Amino acid sequence: VDAIVACSSSQYLCKTIISQAGIQVQNEYNLLKASDQFPDTTSGGTLPCKKILFIPWSPNSRDPTDVKSSLSTFISTAFTLAISVGSKSIAFPAVGCGKFHFDPSIIAKYMLHETRKQLTKYKIKMNISFILLPIQQNVYDEFIKYLNQMQTVDLMVSYKNLMKKQDDQSTIAYDKKIIKITLISTNDNYLMKCKQEIIDLARIFSIKSKLTNKHDMLDWSQNTINKYYEYCLKQGVIPTLDFENVTIELIGTKDTVHEAEKYFYELTSETFKEARIHAVARNVIWSVELIPNSDQWEQYSFKLNGIIEDAFLKEYHHIDFQNDQDEKCRIIFSAMEEHHGTKIRRIRRKPVDSTLPDTWEPSDQRCKRVLLQPSSAEYQNVLAQFHVTMLGKYSKIIKIERIQNERWYKQYTAHRDDFKRRYSQINERLLFHGCPSTSADQIIRECFNRSFAGVNGVKYGCGVYFHAQASYSHQYAQLNSTGEKTIFLVRVLIGQTCNGDKNMKVPPSGYDTTTDGQHIFVVYHDAGAYADHLITYQ
């Protein structure tokens, strides 16, 4: 196995693994423990692995919701670390089934669920093992129980564009259902005849339907594609989506195939609705006041922003929705208030009047990567900032790209406008952020959202980390399969900052960011940073 996961919160487990791994791992672990740098990795030492991933796990309570959340963080952190060091296989311990005495059924269910979620998210093939003690027969039985409910199907989705063909493979899990029929007779001929009649009957009730010229599905997102596959498989229909020839083939019983056809048109209608919502919300930001009369506002998520704006333009009296904290809320437009139970908070609608940068190329894409020419002033300016502290640490610049993500740029400028209103000087800086190339692609699409909090450490707060020197971010820029690394040059809103520590999940009241007091800055707001340029180098 490439990577072994060790729960750093378990002294017994850590002691056992380290004693088997040898003195080198012992020394590496002592350094991590002394500086409290968990989660982090060490070498494999004498164990049959390349890396040992030390990750803390300790739920806040025995409530299943807390256990699920903590296991989700534990598994996702392991995947992030493993992928960053190029691991193709991971071995997990069944945490919580020893001295914690958690129900093995809960541990098995949530660990397997999150593992499947991460494999689907990263779209990679990886061997996953769960290591159990010989005496844990009950734990083994629960893992086998949930594993037997999961069957994997590979979906090859071909995308056609004007220049080339490209395959994108993802994995979806579904429950496999098998019906077993036992035939008993004293005559073999009767048995064969009965078996054939059953097969013929199954064929009569099974049909194949082919939908052609379905160009609408070319507008589907990957999430919509996955949603359709999951629906079909749950209904017992085998779907084949051919994006090159824009056809859909459905195989199943007559009724279920017809339901799958209807669901295709429902999803297409939903896609058109989402496109309209995106269009109406492009230049408007809806926000809610965090604390009554505090004048501290938080923007709604992009999806909710569009839904609220759509209802506002249709002159609805109110709209009901579930916010990002899973709270059921109602907005009453005439009062410009959000109601949640007995809580009432002010809301506001703010047109985004900031324009896109003059250097951006016109595009009808929401997100575009523009390759800069080495002779351009923009390229040379980015290179100069990168080169200051990277002299001797790189041999070649492969490319520098400008990131044109209109949605996130407008979110950032709206946040910056709020800083201008609150401060005489907004304290905006250009900082660096190093990461694996897989994370770089996600950042370009989704910017620095909350899923990146704590990825590069939590020493100065559980947020997204940026550094004034490219040489520092260089250590977090992992080599990809072609021997290249990636670092972002990022616009960051610093605002009011203070020294941070590992216990901070948000900055103290009155502050926007935290820092080490010198070159490191930690951002907690989704719109507090914008990835301006991506530098790929060797």
UniProtKB/TrEMBL annotation:
4Fe-4S found in the keyword field: no
GO molecular function: NAD+ poly-ADP-ribosyltransferase activity; transcription corepressor activity
GO cellular component: cytoplasm; nucleus
Pfam families per UniProt: Macro, PARP
Keyword Nucleus appears in the UniProt entry: yes
Residue ranges crossing the lipid bilayer per the database entry: none
InterPro entries assigned to the protein according to its UniProt record, in alphabetical order: Macro_dom, Macro_dom-like, Mono-ARTD/PARP, Poly(ADP-ribose)pol_cat_dom, WWE_dom_sf
Main localization of the protein described in the UniProt heading: nucleus
UniProt entry keywords in alphabetical sequence: Glycosyltransferase, NAD, Nucleus, Transferase
SUPFAM superfamilies linked to this entry: ADP-ribosylation, Macro domain-like, WWE domain
Domain PARP catalytic per the UniProt entry, residue ranges: 356-538
Record protein name field: Poly [ADP-ribose] polymerase
Biological processes, Gene Ontology terms: negative regulation of gene expression
Top-level lineage group: Eukaryota
Gene3D superfamilies xref list: 3.90.228.10, Leucine Aminopeptidase, subunit E, domain 1
Cellular localisation: Nucleus
Organism the protein comes from: Rotaria sordida
Catalytic activity, EC: 2.4.2.-
Positions of the Macro domain: 1-151
Enzyme class: transferase
